[in-house]
Amino acid sequence: MRYIFGPVPSRRLGMSLGVDMVPYKTCSFDCVYCECGHTTVHEKTRRRYFDSIADVLDEISSALKTGRQIDYITLGGSGEPTLNLELGETIREIKRLTDVKVAVLTNGSLITDKGVFQELLNADLVVPSLDSARQASFEKVNLPAKGILVAEIIEAQRDFVRAFDGDVWLEILIVEDLNDSEDDLIALTEAVNRINPLLVQVGTVERPGSEEWAKPVSFEVLKMLASRIGPNAMVIGGPKRTFSEDTGRDIASDILALVSRRPCTIEDIESAVGGKRPILLGEIRELSAKDKIATYMHKGKIFYVGGRGQKIRELE
């Protein structure tokens, strides 16, 4: 598949059928924690990226026909989806095709654009990010394209929540020594309360990111921030759902599609693909032997990635 991937397990959305709206790592941010690596096309100018929306819809239709569980069709992927000028049309066409809810995962930077603002109103769920409410910390964590101001993002997100009939879940990611100072946490709390989303998800670095030195904060820091924000805030972790084996599928292709989008542990793969661990590890060995999957250690855990990293040891 060229445009879609999954379904994959999401700590936010259950089983999510992803739609890549832009080419790999085309983004208005270059976040230090991004599990997809460094941004290669760093811009805030919207463009058209699909050869044909019909091709995207054909891929989605094929995925829906498999009968696999899909909780959301999620516009996101490995870049910033709102950079695609076909965002609004894509949302409308998907909703004509299926009753499955449409979610948009966005860094929130382009909600300041009137076009993006209006297009997002057609989604069922919008999940923007806000990692800092202070410009200096915002630039350290998110490395935004030139001219993006966090104060304007906060005001636009506030206006969007008021105008939107669907749900807004705001995501915050805290990185040690970058946006975890007392001043940062106070400013974030005030900004989030001003935006007033339905749900706030507070997390930290969990997977290998674009910068190896980006470190997680403690659970206590996350819990404290969530407590300050209020009862609509929660600390989030990895996916907890498990799924039964689905025979007759190309498991190797499913694994490769999953790890090509983000680094995954064997637990992540089990949750998304299903099947018994020995079978999955056998498929991983074969993919590794063909140089389609690499493995490496990060903070004491083994991660599998498509085309990145280095083989670190024989799989057990």
Outline of the structure:
The chain has 316 residues and is of the alpha/beta class. It is 35% helix and 19% strand. The strands form three sheets. The chain has an eight-stranded mixed sheet with strand order 1-2-5-6-7-8-9-10. A two-stranded parallel sheet has the order 3-4.
Would you write up a description of this structure?
The protein has two domains: 4-235, Aldolase class I (TIM Barrel, Alpha-Beta Barrel), CATH 3.20.20; 251-305, Orthogonal Bundle (Arc Repressor Mutant, subunit A). Residues 238-248 and 308-316 have low confidence and may be disordered. It has an eight-stranded mixed β-sheet with strand order 1-2-5-6-7-8-9-10. Strands 3-4 form a two-stranded parallel ribbon. The protein is built from ten helices and twelve strands. Helix 6 (182-195) links the parallel strand 8 (167-174) and strand 9. It has helices at residues 53-65, 87-97, 114-120, 135-142, 150-163, 182-195, 219-229, 251-261, 266-273, 277-289, and strands spanning 4-10, 14-20, 26-27, 41-42, 72-76, 101-106, 125-128, 167-174, 199-204, 233-235, 294-298, 301-305. It is of the alpha/beta class and 316 residues long.
Helix count equals 10
- Shape field: globular
Helix/strand structural class: alpha/beta
Query: Distance between the terminal alpha carbons, to the nearest Å?
Result: 30 Å
Count of beta strands = 12
Strand percentage: 15-25%
CATH class of the largest domain: Alpha Beta
List low-pLDDT spans.
Answer: 238-248, 308-316
The CATH architecture term of the largest domain is: Alpha-Beta Barrel
Helix % is: 25-40%
Count of domain modules: 2
Order of helices and strands: EEEEHEHEHEHHEHEHEHHHEE
* Biggest sheet statistics: 8 strands, mixed
> Taking strands numbered 1, 2, ... along the chain, how are they ordered across the largest sheet?
1-2-5-6-7-8-9-10
Q: How would you state the average pLDDT, rounded?
A: 88
